[in-house]
Each structure stands twice: as structure tokens, then as C-alpha cells.
Amino acid sequence: MLEVKNLSVSFYTPKGEVEAVRNVSFTLKAGEVLAVVGESGCGKSVLCKSIMKLLPSSAKIKSGSICINGVDITGYGEQEMRKMRGKIFSMIFQDPMTALNPTMPVGAQIAEAVKVHRPRISKAELKCQVIELMALVGIDRPEERMKLYPYHFSGGMRQRSVMAIALAGYPDILFADEPTTALDVTIQGQILDLLRDIQRRLKTATVFVTHDLGVVARVADRVAVMYAGKIVEIGTADEIFYDPRHPYTWGLMRSLPAFSKGKDTLYTIPGMPPTMINPPKGDAFACRNEYALAIDYEEEPPMFRVTDTHYAATWLLDERAPKIESPVAGLYR
Questions:
Q1: 111 and 72 assigned to the same domain
Q2: Contact residues for 213 (Cβ-Cβ < 8 A; gap 6+)
Q3: Is 77 exposed, middle or buried (0-12, 13-18, 19+ CB in 10 A)?
Q4: Tens digits of pLDDT across the chain (333 residues)
Q5: Are residues 141 and 262 located together in one domain of the fold?
Q6: Does residue 187 share a domain with residue 164?
Q7: Do residue 84 and residue 186 come from a single domain?
Q8: Which of 73, 75, 102, 298 is deepest in the core (most CB within 10 A)?
Q9: Are residues 215 and 268 in the same domain?
Q10: Does a structural domain hold residue 78?
Q11: Do 213 and 245 fall into the same domain?
Q12: How far, in Å, are 162, 176, 181, 230, 247 from residue 267 at the CA level?
């Protein structure tokens, strides 16, 4: 359904070129959930916005291709993209309060999204469609609540409303950009279960952006780990959780509370992600990697095949590299 090949996206700023996405490739099948994980600033959101062409004027797709159902949309302009947004793909943004208009009733905002895709819909049909969408995302008493404003709703209810707007055109592909970050833990679980339920019922393919590996375990079929604008490891959820191969993935796993059970402190990955104005030579993670080899500072590693579905970009997988036991081996067994 979605095929991204060697995509590179840069922002041109007064301080220089920021290489936000670097040579990224992945595929997405119908009905599949792909989680994109990594620290803040690793290029996850930019990757999704690049596919939907929601980038500012300072950004440019430098190279690569984006194919939707076999059609290359890389060169599409704004007019062509508007016909696709909402219908082919849609996005749930991170903060529902900034995504909703505080001066309009929630029902009117959902109706606005429906009318974009069905401009000739009658008032009676429109009302039924809004009620149906609100019920789909688990908002009780939709006929009554469609008249309320966003400030009448809790954080979880606002996020459900944003989901209803994103689903108004019944898209084939849904991008969920950290949709549970602003919510408390119990509401997070409800929203995640709801997303999974909707995805199964509508057969929507989903790209789920998050930095929370606990969330990933709950929703994902496959996982792509991003660092410094690149996908450094990709595989099924089981492969990433039970047999991770990249030192950065090890670091993310070791940062989970489950790994620090009985210890005084949580593990943290030393250092900070590099600035993408001047990406470091070789492997961008080398300076934070306690298992780094000399070649990591000189040459960027290719994607090594672990299985037919599992790949990782680390020199530790080269046949000449020393054998290092994973520090998270057996964590989830």
C-alpha cells in the first residue's frame, strides 16, 4: 500500500542544511501497524509529514520516492495532494487541544471534515455521519455531545474527537503522531485499544509514531527504530523485542522500567542525539555506543540482514566483528 524508497528530506535554515530524514526506506501493507520509535528529534514526525507533504516552505524532498498503491506521488503539488489527504491518508496529531478549534462545537468540526469529502451531502445525512463517527471512536451520547465545545471535553475525549476528524474520509492509511503523549496512563490504554480496534474494523494501515516502547508492544505488527534521521533497525514486533540487534535498540530497551527492576536508578543512554546540520562521519550513534568499533567512526554501516523481515544497520553484524552478547537478552522471555 505504501512504499518509501531512499527518502531524504532537508530543512534549509540560516544556520545551514538540517538533514532531518536520511535515505529512509520501508513498506506498509494493508491493515498493518508499523510503529516508528526513537528519541525526540530523530526524524519520526518529519518522515510522516513528508509523505503527506505537510512540510514548511523551508523543507525539501532531496531524493527518493513515495509510492501509494503503486503510484509515485513524490512530485505531486499541493492541489493533487489535497485530493489525497483525508481520503487516501490522514493524520492524528500529538496535541488534541491545538488540533481542535476552541470556538466551534466538536460536531461542527467533524462535519467540516466530512463535507470536504462529500460536498453534496444533505444535512440529515451529514448529522448521521457525524454521530456515526463519534460513536466509532467511543464517544457516548454523540447526538448530545456533538453540540459541545472542545473545552467541555477531557483530554481523552478531545483525542477521540481528533480521531473522528481524521477518520471522516475513511482513509486507507492513518498516521498517528504520538497520539497518547498528552494523556494519563489509563486513558492512554483506552486510546491505544480504540486505535487497534478501529484499525482492525476498517482495515486501515497505520504508521504509529512514538518514543514509548510500552506503547509499541501493545499496538505494533512491525517496528522501525529511527536515529539521526535514519532507520537503524526494522523488523516484526517480536524480533525487535526478543532479538534486537542494534546497540541503539538495546539502549532503548535498557531504559524501560522492567529492565531496572530492583535497581536504584533507570538506565539512560549517555550523551545526546547529534545535530543534523553537520551529521557525524560514520555511524551517527558511535559516540554514544559503548560497543562501538573503530570502523563506526569512519564508515556508515549498511543494512545487514538478520532474517527475511529483520534488518539492522550496525557493524556488529559484520562477519568480521567480535561477537557481543545482547545486554537485553532474555528481558521479555
A1: no
A2: 37, 252, 253, 256
A3: exposed
A4: 999 999 999 999 999 999 999 999 999 998 899 999 999 889 999 999 999 999 999 999 999 999 999 999 999 999 999 989 989 999 998 777 788 999 999 999 999 999 998 899 999 999 999 999 999 998 999 999 999 999 999 888 998 999 999 999 999 999 998 887 767 777 888 888 888 888 888 889 999 998 888 788 888 999 999 999 999 999 999 999 999 999 999 999 988 887 777 788 888 899 999 989 988 899 999 999 999 999 999 999 999 999 999 999 999 999 999 998 888 876 655
A5: no
A6: no
A7: yes
A8: 73
A9: yes
A10: yes
A11: yes
A12: 35, 28, 21, 24, 14
The backbone region for 279, taken as left when phi is positive above 0, alpha when psi lies in -120 to 50, beta otherwise, is beta
Per the CB < 8 A criterion, the answer to whether 238 and 255 are in contact is: no
Residue 259: phi and psi, rounded to 5, are -75, -25
**φ/ψ (deg, to 5) at 22:** -130, 105
Together in a domain, 6 and 112: no
Q: Using CA atoms, how far apart are residues 95 and 155, in angstroms rounded to an integer?
A: 9
> How far is the C-alpha of 38 from the C-alpha of 68, rounded, in Å?
25
pTM above 0.70, yes or no: yes
Q: Which amino acid is at 259?
A: F
Single-letter code of the amino acid located at 202: L
| Grid coordinates of 70 | 503503486
Strand order in the sheet with 311-312: 89-92, 173-177, 205-210, 33-37, 222-227, 230-236, 311-312, 304-305
| Number of domains into which the chain is organized | 2
**294 and 160 in a common domain:** no
Residues 6+ apart with CB under 8 A from 216: 35, 37, 208, 210, 223, 237, 240
Find the CATH number of the domain harbouring 74. Answer: 3.40.50.300
Q: Which domain holds residue 247?
A: 2-88+171-317
Q: Is residue 325 part of a domain?
A: no
Strands 59-68 and 71-72 turn out to be: antiparallel
